[in-house]
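Chain A, query sequence.
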Amino acid sequence: MFADNARIKVVKINFKGCEDELFFASLIDYPRYSGSGKTSEEAIQDLYNKVKYQVEEAKELERLL
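Chain A, predicted structure.
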C-alpha cells in the first residue's frame, strides 16, 4: 500500500512521425501506510489517482510551454 506522499516521475515520449502521445509514470519513492486502515484496493486507487493527476499536470505544463 502506498502513502499519499508517494513521489512519481512522469515522462512524455514522442515518436518521430507519430501523433500519439505516450506517458510513462514511475514511482520514485513510495512510503507505506502504517496503521492507516486502508485496504490494498484503496491504496492502489490512491496511487492510480496520483499518477492520473501527474499526467494531467504534465499535459498542462507542456501546453503552457
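The first helix runs from residue 40 to 64. Residues 7-64 form one domain.
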